[in-house]
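Weekly structure sync, notes
Attendees: PL (lead), two postdocs, one rotation student
Agenda item 3: pending single-chain targets
PL asked that the sequence for the first pending target be pasted directly into the notes so everyone works from the same version. It is reproduced below exactly as submitted, 511 residues in total.
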Amino acid sequence: MTSPPSTLVELIDHAAGRWPDQTMLLARQGDQCTYGEYRDRVATMAAGLRDVGVRPGDIVSWILPTWVDTVVLAGALARLGAVQNPIITIYRDREVGFCCRQAGTSLLITPGEFGGFDFAAMAERIKHDGPDLRTLTVGPGSFPTGDPTTLPPVTAPADDDVRWLTYTSGTTADPKGARHTDTTVGAFPFAMGQRLDVQTGDRYSLTFPFPHIGGIGLLFMALQTGCTHLLDETVDPIATIDFLSEHDCTHAGTGTPFYLMYLAAQGRRTAEGAGRLFPSLKVCPGGGAPIPPALHRRVVDELGGVGVCSGWGLTEAPVLTNGDVSDPDEKMANSEGRALPGVDLIAVADDGTRCRAGVEGELRAKGPQVMLGYVDPALNADAFDADGYFRTGDLGVIDDDGYVTITGRLKDIIIRNGENISAKEVEDLLFSSEEVVDVAVFGIPDERTGERVVAAIVASDGATPDLASIGAFLRAASLRTQALPERVDIVDALPRNPAGKVLKRKLQKKG
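Predicted structure, written out during the meeting:
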């Protein structure tokens, strides 16, 4: 199969010309569009954004739900040659403000109130910290529109033109911004689609946050393959699953919480004597965190298809590996697949030597999807080794056949519902509490979310911190809900090695 164009603006025209009447986006809330309509809506919105002052090279941050209009916005900003900073809606003032300041945002686009939070009010608070920042509040059907005939001719960016600033929480207290191009973002979806057997007309679930780099990748995948994405702005365990079932989802992703919802829905149908939840299911794409092998086998037995086909990557280097629908069941259950074409993946021991097959080491990668570097260039020296490999911070094993198994991580992060939480970020905030003398934040396994956040606290004299008081303190410090501890352990002292480093594995072993 010939590879499609590499840039978003070229892909939009390519897909509209090839599949003009094929449905591209279909939302549970009712909005939908074909590939031809998507091209037209992109042009109309681009003209409207140009009318409100967006120009080539402007940095536009947007924190929006998974709406059809949000996906159109990504295309419209690409049409104008803007640099996009998509932000997931779990972030609040601290993170959004940091991203805007560091990126040099000229326009911040938000919804009004969504999910019980007033994003427009947050934008105004952030605006006071940056007098040159403009804000725009939008909702479904109320994005800017204009006359597309006023637009200049389409200009595709060069391969090394930065077009995406994608932020991730990692080992630092502040988010880290990865500098991506259309070429780096578009490098993995086509190959991933081939591994997952994504064909024109397939129905692929896009019910997780579209601003995540995985969501942006699925936009590229749609334009590359002609599939239909099924969207939902919020995930409801009944309504969302019914929507995916009604439209005969063929690719039902994307992580443990979703698979458990699917299995529960299938269990209800089976008890009622109904048929398959997804009669045409091919595969359940996986990502975000490794899944238990037993869950893969339940998916095969109860939902059908070939089971969970996992991939692995990071915001800085999305989808480095992915399973294939033709992989042996044992490999599908116990690995994250093999490296995608063009990816050079190695495992490195503590002494810096390369590990032989089957030996655990830090996974490092070169490949077309690896970022150009961080927005803060001071972070690059630690991110890449002397040979130019990106240091993922994940520990893993590459077997003789190239299949990758993730075994742990060097980076002090917790992955909950597929999103990274910096342990240091939460620790730094808790250290400022008068109730806390010492603290360590870590993750423990959770069947539903992947990991739970735990805070082990040495309390101040006379203080009695508990989950409620700690949660209230962190919320007052504007920590996003996703990162709040779900358990607080009061301890006399934290275990440390002779160098003073907290031995979090000892805390984790206590369960």
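Discussion points:
- The domain at 413-509 is CATH 3.30.300.30 (GMP Synthetase; Chain A, domain 3).
- The chain has 15 helices and 26 strands.
Action: rotation student to compare against the earlier draft before next sync.
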